[in-house]
Each structure stands twice: as C-alpha cells, then as structure tokens.
Design goal:
Length: 230
C-alpha cells in the first residue's frame, strides 16, 4: 500500500474523533481566510480532504473548487456539496480538462509530504498553468527534513488540550502507533523541504515566494509558503 491507497480508505483515522476533525477544519479555514488575497476570487483547494468548512470558505471567496486524488473522498464531497452552487467538486477528469488561468488562488495544504519530488514539481507546473498572472499558490503544512515525530505529537496534544479532546488524543496516539500511517511514514517516508530549497524550487517553476509568518493549522513546526505566479 502507498499513500494514495491509504488516503482512499475510509478508516484511515487520522483524526482522533469528530471534534478533532471539526476543530482542524475550523482552524484551517480561519488561518486560510487571513492569508488569501482580496475577494471575490476563485479558489482551488487541491488535496482538500473532507473539506468540512468549504461553505464558509466559498462564502468568503465567492467560488470554491475542491479536488482530491482519493476517489472515495471526491464521491463523498459530491454528495455533501451537491446543493451548493458556489462549490464545485472536481474528479480526475474534471481536473484534467481545466483551462489555463482559471483560478485566482490555489491552496495545497498537507499534501506535498505524501507525494514524490517529481510529482511535487509537476504539481507546481500545474498550479502555474491554472493560476491567473499574479495568482497565489499557498503551500501549507510543509514538513522540514528530519522533523521528529515527537513535534507532531506535542502539537496534537496541545491542540487537543485547547480543544477539549485530550483523552481521545492520547487514545488516538496509541492507535496511530500500531497503524498503517506510522508504518508508511517509516517505510515510504514523507517528502520534506527546508525553507531555502522550497523557495528555490518555487522560483524555478515561475513563482515569487515567501514563507508565511505562521503555518496554516496548529502545527507550527511546519511551514506555509505563499507563492505568486510571475
Ligand atoms: C492530510 S490530508 C489533508 C487534507 C486537507 N488538505 C487538510 O489539510 O485538512 C492529505 C490529502 O491529500 C490527498 N492527496 C494525496 N496525494 C494527492 C495528490 N497527488 N493529489 C491530490 N490530492 C492528494 C489525500 O487524498 C488526502 O485527502
């Protein structure tokens, strides 16, 4: 099993309970809205996962497109957002048929770590093609090389303490220890970048980029980059 198959399972249990999942998406939406350029704008959330706060993000932006590589997630999003005219859910075929310069901004949050370096470079080219000139590519939750698992654990526990789900988080850590997530993390690994390498790579793909002062979400051991299409 690779990361793609892992994410397509409906039992991957990366959230320790429903409260953790909701608080994650609530926090991500708040952090994202503070970083986006002035609305109205058409935003693509690439690798969106369950996108629980999509209605709030769409209400702010005006138009939101959601894409995820996992067909099971896309099917669920299509059901959940069928009655939302400002939210469009893209499958692989719809993504492939997009015309150039169709988005003002693209979010790619907590995705790069699960792909290979060549896939990451292809993703930057895709983002460049789909963005309008001066459009923003926001890459969040980028992992630093050698980041210890313990920093992820500490971040989860402090988020859980603030969010009132500490007991569930402690139980979740035990489950994770025996899970496919941990096995894949130690066998396939996670793609990681230091800040200079990420900025160089973005420049080489036609972006002017900077690291944001804070990462999107609760894990401040990870990084967010804001890249503007040149
Ligand atoms: C950790 S989740 C992040 C979900 C969401 N962006 C968030 O931050 O809550 C990673 C997501 O990336 C998706 N993914 C993995 N590889 C992908 C790829 N090559 N293209 C698009 N999505 C991908 C997975 O299916 C999964 O939903």
């Amino acid at each position: 099993m690779g990361w793609r198959q892992f994410w397509n399972r409906d039992d991957h249990a990366i959230y320790v309970n429903a409260r953790h999942k909701q608080l994650h998406f609530t926090r991500v939406a708040a952090d994202l809205l503070a970083l986006l350029p002035e609305p109205p704008l058409h935003l693509l959330d690439y690798g969106c996962g369950e996108a629980l706060e999509a209605p709030r993000i769409a209400a702010h932006c005006g138009r939101l497109s959601l894409y995820d590589a996992a067909p099971g997630i896309v099917a669920g999003l299509k059901r959940r957002y069928a009655g939302f005219p400002s939210i469009e859910v893209l499958d692989d075929a719809a993504l492939a048929s997009l015309v150039p310069s169709c988005f003002d901004a693209i979010l790619c949050l907590s995705v790069l770590q699960y792909i290979t370096r060549p896939e990451c470079e292809a993703l930057l080219d895709l983002g460049h093609r789909l963005l309008v000139p001066r459009g923003h590519l926001i890459l969040g939750d980028v992992i630093v090389p050698g980041a210890p698992l313990v920093s992820d654990i500490a971040s989860l526990l402090s988020f859980a303490w603030e969010g009132g789900f500490l007991t569930a988080a402690l139980a979740g850590l035990v489950t994770t220890f025996f899970s496919d997530y941990r096995r894949l993390r130690s066998t396939i690994g996670l793609l990681a970048f230091d800040e200079a390498t990420m900025l160089d790579m973005l420049r080489a793909h036609g972006f002017e980029a900077r690291r944001a002062a804070r990462n999107i979400g609760h894990n401040q051991a990870r990084m967010t980059f804001i890249a503007e299409k040149l």
